[in-house]
Write a structure and sequence with these properties.
single chain; Rossmann fold; globular; four-stranded parallel β-sheet; 471 residues; Serine Threonine Protein Phosphatase 5, Tetratricopeptide repeat; 3 domains; alpha/beta; six-stranded parallel β-sheet
């Protein structure tokens, strides 16, 4: 009875009441004599500790449970979860390996171990874990998705893109186009409908492949894409018929269709195929860009656009960097910083001004979330963009602006595990953490490179684009 009530309080997040009942079951004269009930109460108390940021107490309790029940994997499972939450991935890997030694057929432990290995950069071992999982259960959706991410991170594109097609099963809430027209498989077609998926950054990255479709015999394109991108795409691709993401064009208007994220399967099957990536794909509003430039910095100053935050709910924290740390690294003579960051960041900019004496400009009235055409014009006005991995980087990359991306130790799959050059964007250079959570190395690198960069107006100094990208 006490246990059921305790679990009820735990689900209601009434932690004090739950802890009181659980301790009643575990301590003193009221302690239960039933070993199964005791074990369940210990597990619940460990979960409570983890939910109330008392991870050290949770770990101590779970380690004691594991010593008491060495053949039981539940404590090891929870230890792996808590160590992962704390960022102690090696400890999590150790817990999952112990669990797999006890339950070698466990799909859960294969998957969790694979994820922990991938997060530490041991991606080949992660692939082996996911493949072992799928050998046991070939339709394990999460395992198939995790394998896709690992393969793409390693640059094993042919297998990776094939595995990437499982995304619709892995994320059933992602909106798909309802149509009876066939899925495009790379063949010549008179009219092709492409539809955007995922976030704006993904749409931009995959749309960088659009100029290559004519060589595949695609005569006319219809494109469903985020309406915020319409002004920019209308200027850059005047022959493409644009529609909002939620539109459902008449099927008589097109012969075949494809989600944008399926284009790389046809156009980027290998590392060598990325040699076709174009430096600039999108054309900004040049008049607006020149206006931004003239109002923000003298002609002889390097205008450096910066972005430091990702709103990604799952990985945003590890990708983001403190504005003050970034601004200090770039604070050099002849450099003017301007914010390209979306969201309400005025307070952060003011704080950096007050505490560090660093000025970060922000164009009045520009909404970097909604006015993406304006943001593109501002990016094009910059001589250089320095940013963490977020939508800003994809916009800068498709515009062909010189861009330096600060990456976490094990980044998103699109940046690969190693190297300083982006496969997707020839104008983008990559600066990687050497240790998880430590930005000191990439910040030191960008500062040194900025210091040695030619002054504005000198050879290689950069300037806003003035011509339309090629067909």
């Amino acid at each position: 009875m006490h246990y059921r009530h305790a679990v009820h309080f735990l689900h209601k997040r009434q932690f004090q009441a739950a802890e009181t009942l659980l301790r009643t079951l575990l301590e003193g004269e009221t302690a239960t004599s039933d070993p199964l009930e005791r074990k369940k109460a210990q597990e619940a108390l460990a979960v409570l500790f983890a939910m109330t940021q008392r991870e050290a107490e949770a770990i101590t309790l779970l380690e004691a449970m594991q010593a008491e029940h060495p053949s039981d994997t539940s404590a090891l499972y929870n230890l792996g979860k808590i160590h992962t939450q704390l960022g102690d991935l090696e400890a999590a890997i150790g817990a999952y390996r112990k669990a797999m030694a006890i339950e070698p057929e466990s799909l859960l432990f294969h998957n969790n171990l694979g994820n922990a290995l991938k997060a530490t950069g041991q991606v080949e071992e992660a692939v082996a874990c996911f493949q072992a999982l799928l050998a046991r259960k070939s339709d394990h959706i999460r395992g198939r998705w995790n394998l896709a991410m690992a393969l793409l991170l390693l640059g094993r594109f042919e297998d990776g893109w094939t595995a990437y097609e499982v995304r619709w099963q892995a994320f059933p809430n992602w909106k798909r186009l309802a149509t009876s027209r066939p899925l495009w498989q790379g063949e010549p077609v008179d009219t092709l409908l492409l539809w955007g998926e995922q976030g704006v950054g993904d749409q931009l990255m995959f749309a960088s492949l659009l100029p290559e479709l004519s060589a595949r015999g695609v005569q006319q394109l219809l494109l469903l894409i985020d309406p915020r991108l319409h002004p920019l795409f209308r200027r850059s691709f005047p022959s493409i018929q644009l529609h909002p993401l939620n539109a459902t064009p008449e099927q008589s208007l097109y012969r075949a269709h494809a989600p944008l994220g399926s284009l790389p399967r046809q156009l980027r099957p290998s590392r060598s195929s990325f040699q076709h990536s174009r430096r600039s794909v999108l054309l900004p509003d040049l008049q607006r860009s020149r206006s931004f430039r003239s109002s923000m910095a003298p002609a002889d100053r390097v205008l450096c656009g910066i972005a430091w935050h990702s709103a990604n709910t799952e990985y945003g924290e590890s990708k983001s960097i403190a504005l003050q740390a970034l601004a200090k690294a770039l604070a050099l003579p002849g450099v003017q910083l301007v914010s390209l960051q979306y969201g309400d960041v005025d307070a952060q900019i003011q704080q950096v001004q007050q505490e560090a004496g660093l000025t970060v400009l922000r164009p009045p009235g520009l909404d970097c979330t909604q006015d993406l055409d304006g943001l593109a014009a501002l990016i094009a006005a910059c001589d250089l963009v320095v940013s963490i991995s977020n939508t800003t980087v994809h916009l800068a990359g498709t515009l062909g602006t010189e861009t330096w991306v600060l990456l976490e130790h094990v980044p998103d799959w699109r940046w690969g595990l190693r190297g300083t050059a982006s496969l997707w964007y020839p104008s983008v250079s990559l600066f990687r953490q050497q240790r998880a959570g430590d930005w000191s190395h990439p910040l030191r690198q960008v500062r040194q490179r900025l210091r040695s960069r030619p002054p504005r107006g000198a050879a290689g100094g950069g300037s806003p684009p003035s011509t339309c990208p090629g067909p």
